[in-house]
């Protein structure tokens, strides 16, 4: 059976730093990095006691120098971790949360700024430019609309809203199960996420693996409507109810002050595994009205085709907040930048059930019952931490 290690393989760090990386640094990717991090900024990477390099943005390109003494941001790691970064088994954030990367000089914010820069240089991925103006196509469809139009729009924008997919009766049945699971959930059950509200009370903000013990939700990943929508992907995808978070419900609780209830701008491959997780689709079934008041999803259209963009998403004129009604469905690529701000109303919240679809290798490589988000759990208390809290 193939494992994560065999799927991603290993990279020769010394050979890599003397190969295509140098050409990218002096070409288009280097120009994108220099624009992203700012002229004169530098990052040093010390790999054990054997290798050290500095990336320096300079005159519209990136200069790679041996040694790390003059780098303003310096991290230390080992060859195994760096191989995982190059092969994208883990992202920089995923490695940092696991304690496999140490910030010796600089701050977490500096490291976060360089994450997409390294993806651009290491993996030849285009970086979202600050001035990017995405053509905002119509993203709202129904199940009766043209399949090819929906597929093209999904590829261009990275997300869709499909109206009136589930009936009022179906939504009521889902609500009953979600509320029952939420009430029974505990921070120790490993099947829920918890956060703290302004009153200091613990709140369940996500319930995972609803499909375990519920016929309604165990059947849901194979619903013909969801199968049809998953076929809009650029590659053939399969439901994965026994991996990742299974069939999960996100619960937007007002007044959260600590924990990962109100996620910042992110990609679902943010902890790592991009070649395994992407393209992957998350299909969200709205159980409640989605609006600014209830904590709606927002997307940066077109970001599914780039690295970076989170720094500019809040200010982008292209950012799209999605208004939806119970029974509507959102479809988004996991690589599309998205955010779910906190509900604005004190007594209002949104619940959404998510079903994920992935390439076949996802289920054969990833251990059952596990996902990349698992690294966000602290030891034993059931709380999901932000990267800043974990490092």
Describe this structure in words.
There is one protein chain. The chain is α+β, with helices and mostly antiparallel strands and 391 residues long. It folds into 2 domains: 120 residues, 2-Layer Sandwich (Nonspecific Lipid-transfer Protein, Chain A); 251 residues, q2cbj1_9rhob like domain (Jelly Rolls, Sandwich). Helix content is 30%, strand content 21%. The protein has 15 helices and 18 strands. The strands form 3 sheets. Strands 6, 7, 8, 9, 10, 11, 12, 13, 16 and 18 form a 10-stranded mixed beta sheet that branches. The C terminus is likely disordered.
Overall strand count: 18
What's the shape? globular
Instruction: Identify the CATH homologous superfamily of the largest domain.
Output: q2cbj1_9rhob like domain
Question: How far apart lie the N and C ends?
Answer: 33 Å
**CATH class identity of the largest domain:** Mainly Beta
Low-confidence stretches: 386-391
**Radius of gyration from the alpha-carbon trace, in angstroms:** 21 Å
Q: What's the tally of helices?
A: 15
CATH topology of the largest domain: Jelly Rolls
Largest beta-sheet details: 10 strands, mixed
Give average pLDDT, whole number: 90
Strand content: 15-25%
Number of domains: 2
What structural category characterises the helix and strand content? alpha+beta
**DSSP helix fraction:** 25-40%
CATH architecture of the largest domain: Sandwich
